[in-house]
Design brief:
- This protein has two helices and ten strands, in the order E-E-E-E-E-E-E-E-E-H-E-H.
- The protein is mainly β and 143 residues long.
- The chain has one domain.
- Strands 1, 2, 3, 4, 5, 6, 7, 8, 9 and 10 form a ten-stranded mixed beta sheet that branches.
- Strand 5 and strand 6 form a beta hairpin.
- The longest helix has 7 residues.
- The two termini are 21 Å apart.
Length: 143
């Protein structure tokens, strides 16, 4: 099945039924009717009601990328990780592994991700090498 893509900008707290956020920009991508990717800009909270995901940060996060792949790996990227990030919800209960800015998180943390508090020190600092992992390869022809 082809990916369905949903982009939503400046979603108010009383926005679409699927999402409730204070983010300036929200980008959400679903695959086979399941949430696959979330990108938040300037946010402290998000509720993805249909997929049962709740994200809350201790302070505004300039940028946060969250994705869950086919192997049930949760990947999080943030240029400046928050001091505390809470992740909760049913969709996260299937997570088998977690990476924070490209750094593997412990198995114990992955097993508890359904209601996990991630601390700022748990993240790998963003470096030019880590940023390259986020960028499309030179062979990619993006339109």
């Amino acid at each position: 099945m082809e990916d369905s893509l949903t982009d939503v900008g400046r979603v108010p707290r009383s926005g679409p039924a699927d999402f409730e956020t204070d983010a300036r920009v929200l980008h959400a991508r679903a695959r086979s009717d399941r949430l696959h990717t979330l990108d938040l800009i300037d946010a402290t909270s998000l509720i993805a009601a249909r997929d049962g995901i709740r994200v809350s940060a201790a302070c505004r996060v300039a940028d946060l990328h969250l994705s869950i792949d086919e192997a049930d790996t949760l990947t999080l990227w943030a240029s400046t990780p928050p001091p505390e990030l809470r992740l909760e919800g049913e969709r996260l209960s299937c997570v088998r592994a977690v990476t924070l800015n490209g750094r593997e998180f412990t198995d114990e943390a992955a097993n508890n991700i359904g209601g996990r508090l991630i601390h700022g020190g748990d993240w790998r600092p963003m470096t030019p090498g880590a940023v390259r992992l986020l960028l499309p390869s030179p062979a990619c022809s993006c339109v």
